[in-house]
């Protein structure tokens, strides 16, 4: 079915509230999904893939700070989706970069990592240069790098495979964020490396996707939509004759 | 630099948020010349918008399809109306209704057969349909049965209806929802941000309502002509102009006000800026006379306004009773350069709130050259952003400085936490429940900001005891549930008209004030509460007609002068409306 951006964002927000997200987290998570979807990066599919995990997560478990100093922080994402409260880990990097010029934040053990782009877009819009890096798969080894220019809410995205896999190739289920207050950190792939570029989404292409989504609507799978509606229904209070009076109006208006 | 730029460069003199954002004052606001219906009519006239009828397939009962074209210098739009029979048992103004007398959409671009078929299958279903992404506005309306019957009968006889009917109820149709911004598949508002016709908030919705007003006139004339082709006449111009469109509104406006604080701040800021600009003017005698004339007109308008609601009737009467003193004051006080400042200071001391805000509205009305540019500043990019590196002590100070109102309430008492707001499973209708008596409080909508700020303040004070040098992000990593309130506070201390200073849980809280706040910015008049949380109002009553717009008015100031409309004289009276003022409708 075709839905609008606002509709997608609104339903996701209600669905996340239905899952038990705090108010702010539900809004952020909905923004992340809708942002990805309207930029052609399959946010709804990403969400659907992680939805069963989300429903199982302990809502009280939050990213745990393992180490931090002035420029650097390491957090344990506790194996959770980035949707629930990863925003604060990124805000920590933002705060450090503002104070020190450059920061590095490593978030270990998290999934649905693609979706973090939607929140990084907001940080970039607030004037921060950001590069996010993670590995998608081990065999073949693929890496993804997402880079935002300060003041630009749309990034450049590159995904590539590494042919010359290092011997030490431990699973990487984390994200590394580098933020710089003043310096652009754009992902220019080195020509000397043995890489296969699998996907390249320049800023202009992603912006064009957004324009098209606003013009023609956004295609969403009916089954996923129905599932989100079911989750959103959890925040509603069942109606009764008594509650109908809670809106303060009569039932018929034939005057 | 315009006057508006000067004020925003030096915003001294705006009233404090503690004064303006008190719920009782917001609930006393009147429409101003910056209200959305007024801005739209000015824009339409200035840019020579044209409205034409391209389809009018109605049967003898007035049911069928009508399409109106709206041509602007930048684009072309169509209002597509579907009028259908409706069983009285199904006619309800509530959002839980499932059928209406008229449903309609405002479409960007042309309407070909395929789009019309898609709309015919979906627009009448409203929320239950899937709407086309070129539809900018989706709405529906129910008849005022009494007015409709009276008008059709009178016109069929060749007589003009009694204008008093329109004073009691100022419309033939009242909308029960006017959807924009992506609802049910229609176009997102973000798509309109580059559109010079409808980039202002709610301007597309108001244009849709304006076309419905025109349709309501043509439909009732058509009905009269079908009933009695030999005798039927058209509605007199004075009555057409005196006919608006109603709107029936409930608690749904409350979550909007709370969930869009930056937008509300923007609207209130423009209104307050306009007031400040007006107060800075040193008037000539002509302006004083104009204010006296406007006050007389508003007084008569409010005196004529009918409502069965005892409290609103009392407020109207109190305003009407206060205005002779204002007229006396205006006539007797020497014309000094700061006379408007003296007036508002005097009115703050002596007049009821609604009368005070009426004076403010009328002062703004005096100065189109100074204030009208503010209408282009009603929109805002909404982002409640965190400042994670802010020292937590600073946040505490900001809360204590700007949110004293939130900290002053007792949220633990039964009275202080009496209501909870929720959405019903029945079409998500917003409702109020009594916390200790009704089920559902665990699913409360978090729109009462006061208790949330107080909770956050308590938590951060405790945190500061242990970590006096902490930053905001340090606190939030430990207490993430406060993120939303923290970023709201950090944002709104820069935009202080964003939060309404009231405990929305309190037993004595009046939801009607919330509704009126938003409706005043739309340009509503004739506030007619039907309960403490349900109101009918009128839009566009007195507004220029489509045919007057199409005639490309030369005197734009005169075209714009339609606030506080008065009942036209009856047949037989001086300046009366006679029957047979035009040919029978087609």
TrEMBL record, chain A:
It comes from the Bacteria. Gene3D superfamilies: 1.10.1530.10. GO terms for molecular function: oxidoreductase activity. SUPFAM superfamilies: L-sulfolactate dehydrogenase-like (SSF89733). InterPro entries: Mal/L-sulf/L-lact_DH-like_ah, Mal/L-sulfo/L-lacto_DH-like_sf, Malate/L-lactate_DH-like. This is LDH2 family malate/lactate/ureidoglycolate dehydrogenase.
Automatic annotation (TrEMBL), chain B:
It comes from the Bacteria. This is Uncharacterized protein. It comes from Halomonas campaniensis.
